[in-house]
């Protein structure tokens, strides 16, 4: 399926605690007479994760925090290929659902019951993947600082090198994605460009930026492996606190830190202004999804 020509949509498995288990959200669409996971088409230029959160609010009247990427669904719709991105979404608030012409009923069910009710096999596969996840104990946005020009064009100390115009544009694009996680803290490496990358998110969320050298890249003969280990330890400690966090580090730190958190090699090279949605379980890093 040629994804560049496909209809793009996004949604999620919204879940809330219910006694010793959880219940997930399904919606009924009178136009199709079906039961499905809440989802919808991306607006022009919209990030899939932003669309997923928006659609859950519009269709099920819930506020959610993304946690783990779930399997992508691919099928044909209206004679065209369609690709739908899904995430596990923890419910953090609910309004008063009102039926309308798009969704006229919402049900909250155990995942096993939801699998039996949904009208489409791909929704069942997404729900099965959700049900197989261990409990998520922490979420984090980990980003690499945005573009700050070339080292050779900056005459001062490298730690003082600021974002350029491209970098500020990247930082402003990152801010609403970071906000989707509802972080309680913003943590930055000490380089100026790292702090500035979080500035738009800090203004949007009205949060201070906390600076730590544990996320700094190696300098002056420091061992890169030791710096990566220190960064991984810092990130694990932040995740263990149980509240969503956003952190900004550097290109020589992020890949090594993620490899140590994951416990295995992987492609963790991160472009400037790029980042990851990280989910942690009791035994460590559960998932790393590129933002």
UniProtKB/TrEMBL annotation:
Q: Which domain of life is it from?
A: Bacteria
- Which keywords has UniProt assigned to this entry? Hydrolase
Note the Pfam families from the entry: His_Phos_1 (PF00300), NUDIX (PF00293)
One MF term from GO for this chain? bis(5'-nucleosyl)-tetraphosphatase (asymmetrical) activity
Q: Sorted alphabetically, which Gene3D superfamilies does this protein's record hold?
A: Nucleoside Triphosphate Pyrophosphohydrolase, Phosphoglycerate mutase-like
Q: Which GO terms describe its biological process?
A: AMP biosynthetic process; ATP biosynthetic process
Domain Nudix hydrolase stretches: 5-131
* PANTHER family listed in its UniProt record: BIS(5'-NUCLEOSYL)-TETRAPHOSPHATASE [ASYMMETRICAL] (PTHR21340:SF0), DIADENOSINE 5,5-P1,P4-TETRAPHOSPHATE PYROPHOSPHOHYDROLASE MUTT (PTHR21340)
Q: What is this protein called?
A: 8-oxo-dGTP diphosphatase
């Amino acid at each position: 399926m040629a994804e560049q020509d496909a209809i793009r949509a996004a949604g999620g498995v919204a879940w809330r605690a219910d006694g010793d288990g959880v219940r997930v959200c399904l919606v009924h669409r009178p136009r199709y007479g079906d039961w499905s996971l809440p989802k919808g088409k991306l607006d022009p230029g919209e990030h899939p994760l932003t669309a997923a959160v928006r659609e859950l609010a519009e269709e099920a009247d819930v506020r959610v925090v993304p946690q783990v990427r779930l399997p992508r669904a691919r099928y044909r719709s209206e004679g065209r290929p369609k690709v739908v991105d899904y995430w596990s979404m923890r419910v953090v608030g609910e309004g008063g659902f009102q039926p309308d012409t798009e969704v006229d009923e919402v049900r909250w069910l155990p995942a096993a019951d939801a699998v039996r009710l949904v009208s489409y096999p791909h929704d069942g596969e997404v729900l099965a993947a959700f049900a197989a996840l261990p409990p998520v104990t922490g979420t984090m946005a980990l980003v690499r600082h945005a573009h700050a020009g070339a080292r050779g064009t900056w005459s001062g100390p490298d730690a003082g090198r600021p974002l350029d115009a491209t970098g500020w544009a990247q930082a402003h694009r990152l801010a609403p994605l970071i906000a989707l996680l509802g972080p309680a803290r913003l943590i930055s490496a000490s380089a100026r460009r790292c702090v500035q990358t979080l500035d738009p998110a800090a203004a949007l969320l009205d949060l201070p930026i906390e600076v730590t050298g544990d996320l700094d890249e190696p300098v002056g003969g420091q061992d890169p492996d030791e710096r990566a280990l220190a960064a991984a330890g810092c990130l694990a400690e932040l995740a263990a606190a149980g509240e969503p966090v956003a952190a900004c580090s550097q290109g020589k730190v992020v890949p090594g830190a993620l490899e140590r958190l994951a416990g295995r090699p992987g492609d963790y090279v991160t472009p400037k202004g790029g980042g990851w949605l990280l989910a942690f379980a009791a035994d460590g890093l559960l998932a790393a999804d590129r933002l």
